[in-house]
Amino acid sequence: MEIPISYEILRLMWWALIGVLLIGFAITDGFDLGAAALLPFVGQTDIERRVVINTMGPTWEGNQVWFILGGGAIFAAWPLVYAVSFSALYLAMFVVLAALILRPVGFKYRSKRQDPRWRTSWDWALFLGGFVPALLFGVAVGNVLVGLPFTLDADLRATWTGGFFDLLNPFALLCGLLSVSMLLLHGATWLSMKVERGPVRDRARALGPLFALASIVLFGLGGMWVAFGDLGFAQVSEIVADGPSNPLRTETVAEAGAWMNNYANQPWTILAPVLGFAGAAAAIIGIRRDSEAIAFLGSKLSVVGIIATAGLSMFPFILPSSADPNSSLTVWNSSSSHTTLFIMLIMTAIFLPIILAYTSWAFKVMWGRVTSEDVSAGGGDYY
Q1: HEC sequence for the chain
Q2: Total number of domains constituting the chain
Q3: Which pLDDT band holds residue 1 (cuts at 50, 70, 90)?
Q4: Is residue 40, in this structure, part of any structural domain at all?
């Protein structure tokens, strides 16, 4: 079969699509995670906390589709990346999934008893279900930027040479705190837009600028660490963008400051970090001016900018190896076949617009503020 799109272009398209799916997850399910982590702090009474829960309850399952799509797309487009990362980070992934399970269980079980201690316990379970994934997703990205300690043998079998607590290195923890701040800001702007005017909204609006400022500071510190620290990898062998996938044919070296090279080679990429800073600043302005639309839009743009910064800085690397740089996985040396990427692109062109359409329709139908009167009246799954 003659494929009308070159292998190089398909690899680039799938690299960009993976980024779109991960950003889609962070924008949609991100405000659910942020709102859940804020639950014990913005809601002081049972009614107030039920109001917060009802901003998330109707949509969180649909939002999580982006997470599933992202994992599935990595598996199909870069199977070796999926195999190495999910095997190497198995324990961390297990902790994330365990925390994510607390969310639906908390939604369903919290209202089963009137006992305040019972409900408070589930409120803190929902907090963990929001905070822990937000932290560990950032820690994972930080470790990818540092490089994961794995090696590939002649049969492309991966060997993990590090331990779980090695993942909790200073730079990764910084990225984890940035992720938490970013999503807490997103959750705060979501709550200020979705709940009635009153104490819950006021508390969310008070916390929002603090998380926005924390995002700006942590993002700036992370950028300085990348620019002046010992982070970075560079491919020194010839780049074969349309050749067969084989990581062992790529010669890579660890090179301090290499993650900054793309900004010099492709100046347009500076738009990503600028968007990360500007979006957080716009969120502060929106909150101060009581403009919920500007605040939420700024929060979303900040998410886009911060995540895009990581991806653009690393290109063409997807999963660098700190133990053996020559085992590093890139856009060019670890993808699926030309035919597989093309068939998947056709399927994506068909189904992604459908997902976007029903997601937009669902948000339109369920739009509006959640009020304490609605919650007190009952009648919903999450009341």
Answers
A1: CCCCCCHHHHHHHHHHHHHHHHHHHHHHHHHHHHHHHHHHHHCCCHHHHHHHHHHHCCCHHHHCHHHHHHHHHHHHHCHHHHHHHHHHCHHHHHHHHHHHHHHHHHHHHHHHCCCHHHHHHHHHHHHHHHHHHHHHHHHHHHHHHHCECEEECCCCCEEECCCHHHHCCHHHHHHHHHHHHHHHHHHHHHHHHHECCCHHHHHHHHHHHHHHHHHHHHHHHHHHHHHHCCCCEEECCCCCCCCCCCHHHCCEEECCCHHHHHHHHCHHHHHHHHHHHHHHHHHHHHHHCCCHHHHHHHHHHHHHHHHHHHHHHHCCEEECECCCHHHCEECCCCCCCHHHHHHHHHHHHHHHHHHHHHHHHHHHHCCCCECHHHHHHCCCCCC
A2: 1
A3: low
A4: yes
